[in-house]
Amino acid sequence: xxxxxxxxxxxxxxxxxxxxxxxxxxxxxxxxxxxESFAQLxxxxxxxxxxVLAHG
Length: 56
Hints:
- The protein contains two helices and no strands.
- It is mainly alpha-helical.
- The chain has one domain (4-55).
- The protein is elongated and about 50 Å long.
- The mean pLDDT is 93.
C-alpha cells in the first residue's frame, strides 16, 4: 500500500506534468495550484511525522 507521503509526492508530480501539457492558461493555473497543494501536503506530512518521531 502506498504511504500518504508517497501519494502526495506522486500527485504533485502528476499535476506538474499535467500543467505543462495544459492547453489553456486557466487549465495550467488549476493544475499548478493542485500541484502546489499536494506538495504542501507532502511537506506537512513529513513535518508531522518528524515531530511524532522526535517526541515519541
